[in-house]
Write a structure and sequence with these properties.
- This protein has helices at residues 10-14, 23-54, 59-87, 89-108, 113-141, 144-167, 178-195, 212-218, 220-246, 251-276, 281-301, 307-335, 341-370, 374-396, 425-439, 458-462.
- By secondary structure, the protein is mainly alpha-helical.
- The protein has a single domain, classed as MFS general substrate transporter like domains (Growth Hormone, Chain: A, Up-down Bundle), CATH 1.20.1250.
- Helix 2 (23-54) runs antiparallel to helix 7, helix 9 runs antiparallel to helix 10 and helix 10 runs antiparallel to helix 11.
- The longest helix is centred in the N-terminal third of the chain and has 32 residues, at 23-54.
- The protein is globular.
């Protein structure tokens, strides 16, 4: 069903009245909701390590809390599909918003690190699920011709929201529960646009299998990119404020650092993506890996130096890390056949979530042994291994043909990749035949065009968990 047409199904017409709003106006409610959640997310990301340091707790506590968040995020990747099948997108969105409110309320009780680990695990589950539901919803309602632009707006809204939330720490007294209470307020506000939306509900998703062997055959570089950057992005974003606080940066400087990193993400990832559309994406991945190595090494040397230099280094480092994520995803999609997308994207989601749990957890253990600079050394090792692997693959295989590559879409590496938890093959075929019957006789048979992000097809339009 094309998102620009009004549904004939009475059940869908009843969802918001006889006429549904235009897609551009309808999706705005979902994007605004995510932006509001992102502000609270950014604020708590900056607040927790600063507050723990002010209370005299060791940095490893902040690392353990980050690991708990990652574990919750991994659980969210696997639980969300079943929840959506049971009660639908809107109710799941509001359920996860309520869990975020509960998590922030627990933080407001006081500085109890063990309690905060459980609280942030709940938060990780909820924020991961929110992203999956939101991307599913947007991909179902928008037409293929505007999907890339809507995804970019969604991405920029989230990144800007995180930066604004982090910057708000400058104006908050960390000795009070003001920060988590503000997080509660933004989470509550995020429910209103979705609760009032007339956006039609997508069809329920089906569970897709995880196929590591298939993903490896389709795109070893894409799979390796998810395994590398899923944890590295969470580690850099999470340990940067932990390390900055441990090295003596003030609350205001930490807030400025956490504001600068998302800005660096936009400034680096967008041009990197533009270049990757015009050359072999693997060359851009090698360049981004080298930038990560340079950023991590420079970060270790600028500790205690000029603040502006520190901000510039972390902007470069964060932006390069995020670029690996989005370009790896685009590279994998370039090489996937239409029938492989469901299994590929669910496997990429699994790889991202597994990495997002293991790498921050291992880094926390290293932090206890060698100090808060451990995350810099871990980032260097991961980037070196990934860079060498991509260079080896460049020598072993040819690049994707230009006509087979899709258009790059920016994606936030701290959010789960869109999962193709849509329809099974038989259901997709049934939908194709049903829509063909409604649309009239098919055009003369011709060769199917290569699949790309902007390619069209009934199963791609209808599937709720699509990239």
């Amino acid at each position: 069903m094309n998102a620009m047409t009004q549904p004939d199904d009475p059940a869908l017409q009843a969802y918001g009245g006889d006429e549904l709003p235009p897609p551009a106006r309808a999706v705005a409610s979902v994007i605004v909701s995510v932006g509001l959640v992102a502000i609270g997310n950014g604020l708590l990301f900056a607040f927790i390590p600063v507050r723990l340091a002010a209370e005299g707790f060791a940095p490893t506590w902040a690392g353990a809390i980050l690991t708990g968040l990652s574990a919750g995020g991994m659980a969210g990747c696997f639980l969300t599909g079943a929840m959506v099948r049971r009660v639908g997108h809107a109710r799941v969105f509001m359920t996860f918003s309520a869990i975020i409110i509960l998590s922030n309320a627990t933080i407001s009780i006081g500085a109890y690190p063990a309690l905060w680990i459980a609280s942030r695990a709940l938060y990780g589950l909820a924020i991961s699920g929110l992203f999956i539901v939101t991307q599913s919803w947007l991909n179902d309602v928008v037409d293929n011709t505007i999907r890339g632009r809507v995804t970019a707006i969604f991405y920029v809204t989230y990144v800007v929201g995180v930066g604004v939330g982090s910057f708000m720490l400058r104006f908050i007294d960390i000795d009070t529960p003001a920060a988590p209470i503000i997080g509660i307020a933004f989470a509550a506000l995020s429910i209103i646009p979705v609760g009032m939306t007339r956006l039609r509900p997508p069809p329920p998703p089906e569970t897709a299998s995880i196929a590591l062997g298939l993903a490896w055959r389709i795109s070893p570089v894409g799979l390796a990119g998810m395994l590398a950057v899923g944890g590295m992005s969470m580690m850099v974003a999470g340990f940067a404020p932990i390390h900055a606080t441990a090295t003596g940066l003030s609350k205001n400087d930490v807030a400025l650092l956490m504001f600068a990193m998302p800005l660096g993400t936009i400034l680096v990832q967008l041009p990197a993506g533009w270049i990757s559309d015009r050359t072999d994406r693997r060359y851009v991945l090698i360049a981004a890996s080298l930038m990560v190595i340079a950023g991590a090494l420079l970060a270790a040397r600028v500790d205690g130096g000029a603040l502006l230099l520190l901000l510039a280094v972390y902007m470069l480092w964060s932006g390069a890390t995020e670029s690996i994520y989005a370009i790896s995803s685009a590279h994998a999609n370039d090489r996937a056949g239409k029938g492989d997308l469901v299994a590929l994207s669910s496997t990429m989601l699994f790889a991202w979530s597994l990495s997002g749990f293991l790498i921050p957890g291992g880094t926390t253990l290293l932090t206890a042994a060698v100090g808060t600079q451990a995350f810099m050394h871990v980032a260097v090792v991961i980037a070196v291994v990934f860079c060498a692997f991509v260079a080896w693959r460049v020598r072993r295989s040819e690049p994707a043909a230009p006509e087979e590559t899709g258009e790059f879409t920016p994606l936030p590496a701290q959010a789960p990749p869109p999962a193709e938890l849509a329809f099974t093959g038989e259901e997709a075929e049934a939908l194709t035949l049903a829509e063909a019957a409604l649309d009239g006789p098919p055009p003369p048979e011709q060769a199917a065009p290569p699949l790309s992000e902007d390619s069209t097809g009934p199963d791609q339009e209808r599937g709720p968990f699509l990239s």
